[in-house]
Amino acid sequence: MAPERYAAYVANLEKRSGYTPRRVREKRAYQLVVTGGVTGGVGVITLVLAIAGVIGYGLPVVLLIVSVLCVVMFRRMVGAR
User: Less Cβ crowding at N or C end of the chain, within 10 Å?
Assistant: First the structure.
């Protein structure tokens, strides 16, 4: 490729629009850890109560799904790029 043609392609580069500051990413990761931990803990407790027949199985299932989603989102956030 000729240098003139290459320069024409490079001239149109823009800063990536999806940039998020580090502090915002850290805060989001912390919120995911806290939310996942709380929903996981409450999910296990309510699952034990559901097995004992005190409450239904709907709430524990929803809480455990939310907890798993938080874990997956956290791992995607801090994983290798």
Answer: C
